[in-house]
Each structure stands twice: as structure tokens, then as C-alpha cells.
Amino acid sequence: MQRAKSTLPRVYVTRRVPPEGLRILNESGQVQYELWDSDDPVPRQELLKRVRGVDGLVCVLTEKIDAELLDAAGPNLRVLSTMSVGYDHLSLDELKKRGIRVGYTPDVLTDAVAELTVALLLTTSRRLIEATHEAKTGGWGTWRTMWLCGYELANSTVGILGLGRIGVAIAERLKPFKVKKFIYTDVAPRPELASMIQAEYVSMEELAKQSDFLAICCAFTPETKEICNKKLFSQMKNTSVFINTSRGGVVNQEDLYEALSSGQIAAAGLDVTTPEPLPTDHPLFTLKNCVILPHVASASYSTRNAMSALAANNLLAGLSGEPMPKELKL
Ligand code: DGY
Question: Could you give the ipTM of this predicted complex?
Fold first, then answer.
């Protein structure tokens, strides 16, 4: 906890954030902040107490910023800065109603997330987790002609659900693997982004039917809640690989389990689930054709530092009434 002059705006930081963000706050001399100095989330009741009277709040994606919390903070709160590109943990209506400005961290994590998505896709499609397990546990017999065969990217069609910066960055990385065609769907065509990767706009149904690899990159909103469900999986090829690095809530996990266990689709790679952490006895963990990562897409040292720096700069700009480097339009 750092204390500065009592006249400075008061800020609560809900988690131990990477050093770059803290350095910026410390050196700014513009705020006094209190930090929940732990890698684990601040308990809700504690959070409700700590935010009382603050001018600014820095949070991460595990904190639910809703009416209860905003009421607990009170009328001084004028800036919320989340260290995430996703903002489904924020009640935007409540923030807007109270005139609270919101900063978030797009762009700085695009490369890391795209990189991890490609890694997860290859791990899933070429069955790398199964392969290392077999090698370690005595399953590696003689070289066999069809053992541990998977699906390759060369000559494939890659579908993107929700084309934004991250979808484009994924496609750019996959192109050198000789992908034949990129297709995408979204609420409307996005010609500028699509032209960067020569992607064709198709309907949701065509996306499901044509994709050999389907990457989910959309934001989690009421409209996209469980958009990946029985209907979508039933339209996919049984050789298709499903990859989700957006939010767990866009997938109906029971339907996904059914699609994977019945062979309706070939495999799934998930960096995000509902809930997080996914309980270790969850049925999805029993499937060999499902690779589950613990929400680590943006977890590189440089990216997490850049996210914390942007979150700090958004906060400082917001508190001084200046344009934020990345402000969410409410
Ligand atoms: C985000 O920022 O929303 C990612 O899910 C975690 O980096």
C-alpha cells in the first residue's frame, strides 16, 4: 500500500498487477492507491468495504463490477480501469448511468492471444497432449501407420466467429500453414478487416458447415451467450476442430460435451470455460479430444506488463479528465 498526499485522488487496485502498471502509478504522483497485494481475488465483502469513497478503481476480469459494488463505492467514483480487453464482468448500463468512465486494454494483447490460439489449435488438432502422455506412460509401441493421426491446416478452411483484431492476427499466423480459405461471420460484414486476410463473409450455418477449424473470437454479450450450441455443432463436420479463446459463456458446454463424445466434431481446444476454474471433475476433462487451458491466452510477461501499463495510463488520464488511451464508449 502506498500513501501520498491525502488530497490526491484515492484509487483501489483489486489485485497484484504486473510491475509496469505499478511503476506508472507510483511515478505519476497523481494518485494515492491501495492494492490488494495478492494473486488471489479480493473477497467480495472486503472489496465492498475497500472501495468506499474511492475516485478510481483498477480491476481485473474476475471482479464483478455491478450496481452493488458501484453503490458501495459511492458518488466519488469517476473512473474504472479494467486490465482486460473483455468487459463482460462490467455492468455497462450501471456505469453509464453514474457517468463513470471506463478504460480497458485492447490491442496490447492481440499478438499474445493470437499466438496462444495457434498453439492451442495445433496442440488439439495434432493431439499433442495425448501424444506426450502415451510417450511417458508406455503407450509408445512400434511406429504405427494410423496411430495418433490428426488433422492438418494445409488445404483447410478456417472459420472465424467474430472478426476483430484478434481474429485477423490469428489468420495472419495461420496463413503460412497453407490454409486454403478463411471465412468468417459477425453481426455484419467487416470488409476492412476481412480484406487484410482475404476472408469471405458467410452465414453462421455456412461457417459451421465449411470450417475445418473454427476459432471463436467474439465478445461475450447477451447476443453471443451459448451461441456455440447443439445446432452449431450438429452442422459441423465430424473432422472439425473447435477452438475457443474468447469467453466460456459463448459455449453451451453440455452440447459441446455431447458433440465431442459422440464424434459429431473431432476435437476442441478451450482456453476459457464456465466456470473458471473448471472443476477438475467436470466431464469435459474426461475427454481425450478436449484440450483445456486455464485462461492463459494473454499470459506472456511482455503482454501482461503492457496491459497493466495501459490500465494505469487509462486510469490516470480518466482521473485528470483527459482522453484515455483506450476508453470504452458507453
Ligand atoms: C482479457 O483481457 O479479456 C483476456 O481474456 C485475458 O487477458
Answer: 0.97
